[in-house]
Write a structure and sequence with these properties.
By secondary structure, this protein is mostly beta strands. The chain contains 1 helix and 12 strands, in the order H-E-E-E-E-E-E-E-E-E-E-E-E. Helices cover about 5% and strands about 65% of the residues. The longest helix has 11 residues.
């Protein structure tokens, strides 16, 4: 990744010509599963599919090898869950409380992914259709906030209910992205995958482990 980034950053200077490109479609944030901000078997709603927008420039380094530099926004996701605040009170196999549920808390999550994508795309033409594969770097920062209402993990400590708010603090980083496209003329249908999972050791990670998008791209 460290070797790839300087090369990708230099691509616009190497290209013979460039065009604007714009894309719109949908993104899906794949969640990290049971016990990451919700508990299966207890009430929850995960709204993890959102509109996706991108705008940038593209050109060819050499024939049949394109570069892309785009700003990407994948719309805001949200989650709402009712869960026992003490993991010891929840059985992840049975997907229910162990014994009697202690007073449950309301977990509300909000977040999005925004960043810049820098990629290389070898492509070819088959019967007039442009087919390409794409890989490179996504410079991004997870923006995730979890608010927990009625928090009291120990019902025996006599403490009152509290509201707790935490955020993903992993900061800006470079993660891999890859995809494929098929199109004709100036229009392509593009699938992409991003490894947007919070790094290991993040105290309050975002709910997603990766993001996928399907967009229609237009070059002009």
């Amino acid at each position: 990744m460290k070797r790839l980034l300087p090369l990708v950053l230099a691509l616009p200077a190497l290209a013979h010509a460039w065009d604007f490109e714009v894309g719109a479609g949908v993104a899906h944030f794949a969640d990290r599963g049971n016990m990451f901000w919700y508990q299966e078997g207890l009430p929850h709603q995960l709204q993890l599919t959102t509109p996706a927008l991108e705008l940038g420039v593209t050109g060819d380094v050499v024939p049949h090898l394109a570069w892309h530099a785009d700003v990407v926004y994948m719309g805001r996701v949200r989650t709402d869950a009712v869960a026992t605040p003490d993991d010891a009170n929840y059985d992840p196999v049975a997907k229910s409380c162990r014994g009697q549920c202690i007073a449950r808390s309301n977990f509300t999550g909000r977040g999005d992914s925004i960043g810049a994508r820098l990629t290389l795309e070898p492509y070819t033409y088959v019967a007039g259709w442009r087919i390409g594969i794409e890989a490179g770097a996504y410079i991004t920062r997870n923006r995730w906030t979890e608010t927990v209402y009625d928090w009291r993990p120990n019902p025996d400590d006599g403490a009152g209910l509290r509201t707790v708010r935490v955020t993903d603090d992993s900061g800006w980083r470079v993660v891999p992205t890859a995809g494929a496209s098929i199109g004709r003329g100036n229009v392509d249908l593009v699938y992409r995958w991003y490894r947007t999972r919070s790094p290991n050791g993040t105290l309050y990670p975002a709910i997603w482990q990766n993001t996928q998008s399907l967009t229609a791209r237009y070059r002009f």
